[in-house]
Amino acid sequence: MQKHTPMVKYHPDARFLTDYAAGCLPASQALCVATHLHYCPLCRLKIGELTELGAELFMQQQPVKVEKAALEKLLARIQASPQSPISPVQAEPSVSILPKAVNKLTSGNLERLNWRRIGSNFRVSRLNVGDKQRETSLFCIKAGGHVPHHQHKGDEITVILKGSFSDHEDKYEVGDFIVRTNGETHKPVASQDQDCLCLSTLDAPIVLSNWLLRFGLYLFNLGTPSHQTAA
Amino acid sequence: MRTGSLKAMDYESDDQQPAAPSDERGQYWVICLEKVASTQDVKAFRELFEHFSPMIKSFAYKIPGLEQAEPFAEELLQETMLKVWTKAASFDARLASPSTWIFTIARNMRIDLLRKQARHVINNVQLYQDGDDDEIALDDIWFEDENSDVFNQLAMQRSRKQIHESLKLLPIEQTEVLSKVYLEDKSHAEVAAELKLPLGTVKSRVRLALNKLKLVVDR
Ligand SMILES: [Zn+2]
Predict the structure, then answer these.
(1) Which candidate in B112, B117, B182 is best for mutational testing of the A interface (most A CBs within 10 A)?
(2) Which of A35, A186, B37, B151 has its CB 3.0 to 4.6 Å from that of B89, i.e. a possible disulfide?
(3) What predicted TM-score, i.e. pTM, was given to this entire model?
(4) Which residues of B touch A93 (CB under 8 A)?
């Protein structure tokens, strides 16, 4: 985890942090929180506390009787398998500046991903996080470029991985966790000096077969598959 | 998959340690874990098992409406304690207390088992399966050993004491929401739906509770 990072300004609220620490946040949103944690020591501290709270509630549960056979069964399994306790794996120093989870999803190589271009300044690649209710993707806005004006049909979380973007409200930097709710419109513009890479997850209540088409319709309100006709 | 209500459970009556505050006996479990790690000490592991397994089983039964609750609880117990055995060497007392470490393993294992069940159901009805092979591993999203920084640990020990002492002073509706979120695997949104409350009410109950527990969240 990175210890020295630029100031992160936008954080997940108590709801996201608590659901994450409890393990009940949907996987795609949990990925966004985990990504933010990579950049944010303050939220790591909060998650530490919220995990302590979980452990305390866990230990205060009404105990449930465990049959004696359960331990014998486990010890037999342990003896049968050649593996004794494994020594801790020394974490390799990360070469990439991207969070571990994002690296895993992209196999450390962004160019290997299946990118879909939308317009000249914008490309998007879907990630599989095992969450069928949401669309999770990486998107990249070219320096100075903007995302076509769009309206959200569901809640959307965005975490910035590289670069920065601005909308009518503020400028957002690496690590910022930005939530947009249903019905809000905004028009992010990447800063001039570098491309902006983001992780995002969008509530998608309807399941259609062609995700790419659906994503286009959702996010950019294209109306028809040909984006020339978009407003 | 999740239908009906909680199955009846029988509670341990004998050979259960008195409900000691988790951090008072914490040092003892640190020693046990270190013995398991360094000499594969079965006796120390047996003690850990006897202390923590009734909690792991209880944690499994908290999932509402599982059809196969008993096998699920059995599997969660076996897999969690197997991980405690194999990963004991990666336990670091500077980063977490034994109960926090074991809770984290049980939490991740429970998500994993539930996810496998859900995937099983989904594959059976052939819903939607593009690129499922690329799916990310759970441990990459919910870390088992990376979510604490060493320098935070003093603060963490203080808050654990604080939590232990203040938890019993919370109003019932706040404790209820907290235990649904943490133990019953229900997100804020799901708790709101279940209790027929606006999401905002659930959020504010959690906030009030965290505030009373004097956690830094939301400060
Ligand atoms: Zn933060």
Answers:
(1) B182
(2) B37
(3) 0.82
(4) none
For every residue of B79-112, which 3-state class applies, written as one string? HHHHHHHHHHHHCCCCCCCHHHHHHHHHHHHHHH
Could you tell me which of B192, B168, B197 has the C-alpha nearest to residue B181? B192
Q: Is the dihedral of CA A99, B181, B2, A135 positive or negative?
A: negative
CA of B218 from ligand 1 middle (Å) equals 10
CB contact under 8 A, A71 and B50: yes
Summarised one tens digit per residue, pLDDT across range B58-82 is: 999 999 888 889 999 999 999 999 9
Q: Which domains does chain B have, with CATH numbers?
A: 1-150 (1.10.1740.10), 169-219 (1.10.10.10)
CATH number at residue A175: 2.60.120.10
Asked whether residue A160 is assigned to any structural domain, the reply reads yes
Residues A217 and A103 occupy one common structural domain: yes
Query: Same domain, yes or no, for A211 and A161?
Result: yes
Instruction: Give the confidence band of A72 by pLDDT, cuts at 50, 70, 90.
Output: very high
Tell me the ipTM for this assembly: 0.83
